[in-house]
Amino acid sequence: MFWMITALGMLGVAGVSLFATMNRLGGNVLKAYRTAPVLAESALAEGAYGKVTGIASSNKKLPVAPGLELPCLVYELVVHEQSIDRQTSGGYRLVHSEVVAVEIDVTIGNTIVRVNAHDIYLVSGPVYDSQADLRTGGSPYGHTSRIRFVPPGATVHVVGTLTREVDNDPTASRDYRSLATRYRMIGKRGQPIALAADLT
User: What long-range pairs does 19-28 form, CB within 8 A, spacing at least 24?
Assistant: First the structure.
């Protein structure tokens, strides 16, 4: 019994620590997003850091946002469960949070900036709310879910560091190679890539 209590206590501490860490990470990413310099197409270069704006697309199979049943480039699912603990804010506690994304191409004029799905922190996007648990097999009672999503064709603003990427497509024509330049965006100093989609 002692070991069980100790283990549960450690899990509680770990949960609080993780929550605090995620809050700090989110605050740092939002600050970086707000203060990043804007990079026009002419300013894109190896090692350049800042915010680019363009049209988002992908040639990958798109994940379908639950509840919306809408193919998306990125979606974030956050689920809260009704809590009997009155100390919990609003009577609900966070039970699930995940970001699902594919590799995204952001087109800026004749330039493509490729964004790695695993490095994305979703700053903002259109929102869908549900009074159910939208996880697979989730309960329809006692839960709320919020989906933030980025549909294909959306205008996005992305913050990170650029690295030049060689076009490895053997079928690409010389005209394509001379016209299009491709970069990959990576996180800066251990921070994820910040991405926001216009809400219109």
Answer: 19/94, 25/121, 25/191, 25/192, 26/121, 28/191
